[in-house]
Amino acid sequence: MITAAQTAVSLAGEAYLDRAAVARLLGVKPKTIAAWFKSGTGPACIPINRRKHVYLRSAVESWVASRSVVSHAEAKSRGLV
Asked: Residue 58 in contact with residue 66, Cβ under 8 Å?
């Protein structure tokens, strides 16, 4: 489990995660997070510059919740698999 100290900074009470922290949280590689950003299928992020993006932890959690399905058929019909 990732602790707040390992993820990123907290600003105004909101935790901001870098790409590597989001990847660790979701169990994927940072390149996967980058690919999701480029295709527009991943969690919303805040571009800091061309190479650096930060993610609100709450946005990542909302994105994960939005992908919840009850069956493989539902996931397939929503284009999630």
From this structure: no
C-alpha span between 46 and 50 (Å, rounded): 11
pLDDT in tens, 24-66: 999 999 999 999 999 999 999 999 888 888 999 999 999 999 9
Which DSSP symbol is given to 42?
Answer: S
Query: Range of 48's domain?
Result: 4-77
- CA distances to 1, 3, 26, 34, 37 from 47, rounded to whole Å, are 26, 23, 20, 12, 10
CATH number at residue 17: 1.10.10
